[in-house]
Amino acid sequence: MMEKTALAKQGIRSNDTGRPAYDLVIIGAGISGLSTGLMWLKNTQGKKTLIVEKNPYPGGYVTAYERNGYVFETTQLFPDIVNILDYLGLEVPLKPFPGTFMRRLVVHGNGVTEYRIPAGVENFTVYLCEQFPGDAAKIRKLMAYSVEMFAQVRKLKALPTLGDMLTTPFAAPKVVANLNRTYAGLLDRFRITDDRLREVLETFSSFSGVPSARASAILTAGAMLSSMARCYRPYGFFDTFPAAMARRFQELGGEIRLRAEVERIVVENGRVAGVRVKGDEPVIRAERVVTTVDPMVAMRRLVGEEHLPPKYLDRLKGIVMSPSSLNVALGLDDGIDLARLDLDYPYNVVSTGRGTTERLFDAFLEGGNAFSPECFHMAVICPSLTTGAKNTVTLRGVPFGIGDWLSWRQKDPGRYQAEKERWAEFFIGIAEKYFIPDLSRHIVVKDIATPATYARYSGSPTGSIYDMAALVTQFGPKRLPMKTPVANLYQPKFAHGLYGGMMNGVQVVDLMLDRAFNGGNSLFNPQGRPAA
Ligand SMILES: Cc1cc2nc3c(=O)[nH]c(=O)nc-3n(C[C@H](O)[C@H](O)[C@H](O)COP(=O)(O)OP(=O)(O)OC[C@H]3O[C@@H](n4cnc5c(N)ncnc54)[C@H](O)[C@@H]3O)c2cc1C
C-alpha cells in the first residue's frame, strides 16, 4: 500500500554526467520542459540532452508537498491527454470524473444559484438547454460551433509557411474568423444575452483569471472542450505525473540537473551557444536551447536586451503576464467527513455574479486585488477524497497581483504573516458559508501560498501562475513566436495548463525536427497517426 505522505518527486535524482556540451539544453523541468525532453528523445537517437532545473525536484507548478503529515497539491485537473501519455509510454493511474465536472455556485445578494456542470460536451449542452430552455436553440448552435472551431485548430500549423497561410482560410475558416474575437464577442455573436447563462459560460474564461471581454474566444472554447471532454486526476498525489515523466526521460538517456539555476543564456554572434548555471564557471555548451521559464526573465534577463532587436523588445514590453493567486491549503482532523459534503469533483467554484472577473482583473492589472465580501471568485478542491490520505482541502483565489507581497516578505515579515492570515480567514469564511460548515473547527494545519510564494517557486517575478495571460491580444500569431531572434534558441508558449504545456513540447520538438515528428501541426498528431 502506498505510504500516504510519500512524494514521488523525491525519488527523482540528478543524473547529469557533467559533459561540457549537449545537443539540446532545456531550461526548466516543469511540464513544458519535461514534454520537450521526452518528445525529443523519443524522436531522435543518441542526442545528448540535458534539463536544467533550479528546484530540488521536477514538476514546476505541478507538484505536491507535505506539511506535518498532510500532503497538499497545486494542480487539480488532468485534461484529456491520455493519448499523449500512451505515446510517451507513461503510466499514471488516473481517476476519471464521468459525472459532474464542477459544482458552480453564484451568489446574488442573499441568494445562491447552484449549477452542476456535467463532464462531456453533449451532457453540458443538454444541461444548459434544460436550465435555460428559452435559449436552447442558441446554446446548441454555440456549442456545435465551438466544437467545430476547436476541431479546426487541429488543422492549423504551429509555425505556418507561406503555403500554409494560403490554405488556412479554407482548412480552418472558423479559426480565422475568430482570431481577434473575445469570448464575450462569441457569446454576443450567438445573441446570448441572459445574464445567468453568460455567468455559467464565462466560468471557462475565468478559469484563466481573465474576463470574457478580454479572453480569446478560441482559447476559452479550447480550454472548455479539452478539460471537460474527459477529465481526470491521478489516484496518487499529483507529483506522480512529472515524476513519471522525469523517470521516462532518464530511461531514454536524458540527463536532469536539479538545484541548478540558469543565470545566463549565452549568445555568440547572434546564435545560442549554451547556458551558464549560477555558481558554475564553465558554460554548458549547447547546439540548441529551449527555455520554458517566464519569457520576461528568459529574454530580458537571461539572454539580455543587448542581444534583442528593438522591435522584439517592444513586443516583450507590451506583454501582460497572467495573474497570481492566493492559496489556502488546509489539513483537517478526522472529525470531519468530507465524503459526505458532495465535493468530490475536479472543481467546486463559488463567485459573486456577473462583472466579478472584470473587477478582479482590473485590480490585478493595477498590481493588487479587489476581493471583498461583495466580490470574490474562489475554488475549493478536496484531493484527499481521491488519494485516501489525511483530509485536505485547498481554497484558491485568482486573480491576485504581486502588489506588496514581495516587499512584505523581505522587509516586514510581521505584516506578511498578518496579510496571509487575513486572506486565509477571508477564504475560509467563504468556504464555510457555501461548502463546508464548521470548517474552521477542524483545521489542524494551514499552509498559505501568496503571490510571493509563487514568484519564488517558479522564478516568475510577478508570481504568474498561467504564463502569458490568455488575452485575445496575445493569442495565435500575436503570441511570442517559438523561434526567438537568437538563432537556435526556442521558447514554446502555445498555452498554459497541462494540455498547453504538453503542446509546447510537441510544437517545439516538431520545429527542431523540421516537422518530421508532428507534421507541423499545432496539436498532437504524430506522423503516421490519423488526426484524433
Ligand atoms: C495553483 C495552480 C493550480 C493549477 N491547476 C491546474 C490544473 O488543475 N490543470 C491544469 O491543466 N493546469 C493547472 N495549472 C497550470 C499548470 O500547472 C501550468 O500551466 C503548467 O504546469 C506550467 O508548466 P511549465 O512547464 O510551462 O512551467 P512551470 O511549471 O512554471 O515550470 C518552469 C520550471 O522552470 C524552473 N525555472 C525557472 N527559472 C529557472 C532558471 N533560471 N533556471 C532553471 N530552472 C528554472 C522552475 O523552477 C520550474 O520548475 C495550475 C497552476 C497553478 C499554479
Key structural traits:
3 domains, FAD/NAD(P)-binding domain, alpha/beta, binds flavin-adenine dinucleotide, 532 residues
Write the CATH fold name of the largest domain.
Answer: FAD/NAD(P)-binding domain
Which structural category do the helix and sheet elements fall into?
A: alpha/beta
The separation of the N and C termini measures 37 Å
Taking the sheet with the most strands, its summary is: 7 strands, mixed
Q: What is the CATH domain class of the largest domain?
A: Alpha Beta
Report the mean per-residue pLDDT as an integer. 94
Subunit arrangement of the protein: single chain
Q: What is the number of E strands?
A: 18
Rg of Cα set: 22 Å
- Determine the fraction of residues in helical runs and give it as a percent range: 25-40%
Bound molecules: flavin-adenine dinucleotide
Q: In words, what does this structure look like?
A:
By secondary structure, the protein is of the alpha/beta class. The chain has 3 domains: 8-94 and 235-320 and 467-512, FAD/NAD(P)-binding domain, CATH 3.50.50; 120-228; 323-458. The chain has 19 helices and 18 strands. Strands 1, 2, 9, 10, 11, 12 and 18 form a 7-stranded mixed sheet that branches. Strands 7-6-14-15-16-13-17 form a 7-stranded mixed sheet. Strands 3-4 form a two-stranded antiparallel ribbon. Helix 3 packs antiparallel against helix 4 (136-153). The mean pLDDT is 94. The protein binds flavin-adenine dinucleotide. Flavin-adenine dinucleotide (FAD) is lined by residues 27-33, 52-55, 60-62, 74-77, 79, 261-262, 292-293, 325, 327, 458-459, 465-466, 496-499, 501. Residues 27-33, 52-55, 60-62, 74-77, 79, 261-262, 292-293, 325, 327, 458-459, 465-466, 496-499, 501 line the site of flavin-adenine dinucleotide.
